[in-house]
């Protein structure tokens, strides 16, 4: 048996009374968390859901996310993680494409994910049942949609997990693609557990278990593997934040005696710039923090230096993708940190840097980063063509440009693909362009990333008008805000009479970026 659910079961068996989760005033032990996961599994089983079924989970950082996640795994079912930032049309596409037979979603009125999930559920007949956590308003009808509590109430607190194979799919995580449609990366039970093992091997947990602040969303691969699963593997404490706030994050770090923290660069920038953090708190952080890590986007060396100077704490930067579970390269200890580097290959993982012909480049030269090993996904769900392009001869082609020094430390220097990273979230221009061109006034759209002090990159769209139409840029931005997730829609719209095209009819985005640079440089 190699069911990922045993990660929680083992921690609960060995440390039943140790605290597992803190969320607001709620404090749960490992025994209580495991029992809640068993209730979820029992409820889903009674609803006719079993091994191999796909169950979508759309929830922010809350204890219910963890209980539902492991409850689904216990059945031998597959967790389809849905971003809590998506809109109804985006959720509906993922429900339909993933063949999800059921949905568990957060329904609190403090977020739009509940209403978006309900609307998406109504659009997908194959998704037969939905349960809403903290259901507000008219999300539930008592038949096809019910409160989450009805799924777990009165259910048994024990459940024998289904025996699955290591290479069976455990989780499907959607990542946008250059075709404009998201792709579902299938990650296996072995992908997760081996990924956790290499991190635990490199950095063993302190006696008494690790203590982690979870501010990155657990529906995202980094928090799911590197914080949730690793924390549970170490029988550590997970302190959950549903929404990041720098002052509250610092308060929790100090109150819960947390020595490590993982975030995206924008979070560290927010902590450094937050006026609500007192001098006393800064001094306490210097005494308490051992290490912090960043991911989701390239970390500027200046940010690493500033954080080190302020808090006397080294900031490590690793590398990975949804398709690599995610960890493939990281700093193996606090003593081997090199500013600007993403570290070295993880145990059991091979890295290559190649040119356009697929040949290894000399040391120090840039090329595309390739990854091979236990971390590489099974493939993209129902997309063999995309899988064949992404994984060739066992090597995952990242699309990222990197160089490697003589000590095998890797440095990311750019991206071969057009992916934009805004605030740690991946945004693919083709998906945004496809949505923009559904607007009745827009004829063509080309989306690029432009530098931004806080978000790393901001999304900018160049658009042309349909014949006889005029484009109201503020109106387009407002429309896009409703049509796309908050990290995807463009904040900057530039109207052009035409877009520069190459010989094959493809928009020359480099020319658009050159225009921006010229306009910026003009006196």
Tell me about this structure.
By secondary structure, this protein is an alpha/beta fold. The chain is built from 16 helices and 28 strands. The strands form 6 sheets. It has an 8-stranded mixed β-sheet, with helices on both faces. Helix 1 runs antiparallel to helix 2, helix 4 (88-98) packs across helix 5 and helix 9 packs across helix 11 (279-288). The chain is globular.
Looking at this protein, list some descriptive labels.
523 residues; alpha/beta; 8-stranded mixed β-sheet; 7-stranded mixed β-sheet; 16 helices; 28 strands; 26% strand; globular
* Low-pLDDT segments, ≥5 res: none
- What do the pLDDT scores average to? 92
End-to-end gap: 68 Å
Helicity level, as a percent range?
Answer: 25-40%
Structural class: alpha/beta
Strand order of the largest sheet: 7-6-5-3-4-8-9-20
β-strand amount? 25-35%
């Amino acid at each position: 048996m190699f069911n990922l659910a045993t990660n929680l079961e083992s921690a609960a068996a060995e440390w039943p009374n140790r605290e597992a989760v803190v969320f607001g005033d709620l404090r749960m032990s490992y025994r209580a968390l495991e029992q809640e996961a068993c209730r979820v599994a029992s409820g889903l089983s009674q609803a006719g859901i079993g091994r191999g079924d796909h169950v979508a989970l759309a929830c922010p950082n809350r204890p219910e996310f963890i209980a539902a996640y492991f409850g689904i795994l216990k059945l031998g079912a597959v967790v389809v993680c849905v971003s809590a930032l998506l809109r109804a049309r985006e959720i509906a596409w993922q429900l339909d494409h993933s063949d999800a037979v059921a949905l568990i979603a957060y329904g609190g009125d403090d977020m739009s994910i509940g209403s978006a999930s309900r609307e998406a559920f109504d659009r997908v007949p194959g998704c037969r049942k939905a349960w809403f956590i903290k259901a507000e308003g008219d999300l539930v009808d008592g038949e096809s949609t019910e409160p989450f509590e009805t799924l777990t109430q009165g259910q048994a607190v024990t459940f024998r997990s289904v025996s699955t194979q290591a290479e069976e799919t455990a989780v499907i995580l959607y990542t946008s693609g250059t075709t404009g449609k998201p792709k579902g990366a299938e990650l296996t039970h072995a992908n997760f557990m081996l990924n956790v093992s290499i991190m635990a091997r490199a950095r063993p947990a302190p006696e008494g278990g690790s203590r982690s602040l979870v501010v990155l969303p657990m529906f995202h691969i980094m928090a799911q593997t590197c914080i949730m699963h690793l924390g549970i593997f170490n029988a550590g404490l997970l302190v959950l934040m549903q929404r990041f706030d720098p002052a509250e994050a610092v308060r929790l770090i100090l109150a819960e005696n947390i020595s490590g923290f993982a975030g995206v660069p924008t979070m560290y920038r927010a902590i450094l710039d937050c006026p609500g953090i007192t001098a006393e708190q800064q001094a306490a952080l210097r005494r308490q923090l051992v290490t912090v890590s960043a991911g989701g986007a390239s970390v500027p060396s200046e940010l690493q230096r500033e954080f080190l100077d302020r808090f006397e704490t080294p900031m490590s930067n690793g590398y990975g993708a949804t398709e690599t579970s995610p960890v493939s390269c990281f700093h193996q200890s606090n003593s081997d940190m090199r500013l600007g580097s993403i570290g070295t290959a993880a145990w059991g993982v091979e890295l290559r840097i190649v040119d356009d012909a697929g040949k290894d480049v000399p040391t120090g030269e840039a090329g595309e980063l390739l990854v091979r090993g236990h971390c590489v996904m099974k493939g993209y769900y129902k997309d063999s063509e995309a899988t064949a392009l992404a994984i060739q001869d066992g090597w995952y082609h990242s699309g990222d440009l990197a160089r490697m020094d003589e000590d095998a430390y890797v440095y990311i220097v750019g991206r071969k693909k057009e992916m934009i990273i805004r605030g740690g979230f991946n945004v693919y221009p083709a998906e945004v362009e496809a949505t923009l061109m559904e607007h009745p006034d827009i004829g063509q759209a080309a989306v690029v990333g432009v530098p931004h002090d806080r978000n790393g990159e901001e999304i900018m769209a160049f658009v042309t008008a349909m014949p006889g139409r005029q484009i109201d840029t503020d109106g387009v931005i407002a429309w896009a805000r409703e049509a796309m997730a908050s990290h995807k829609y463009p904040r900057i719209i530039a109207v052009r009479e035409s877009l520069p095209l190459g010989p094959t009819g493809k928009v020359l985005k480099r020319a658009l970026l050159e225009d921006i640079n010229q306009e910026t440089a003009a006196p």
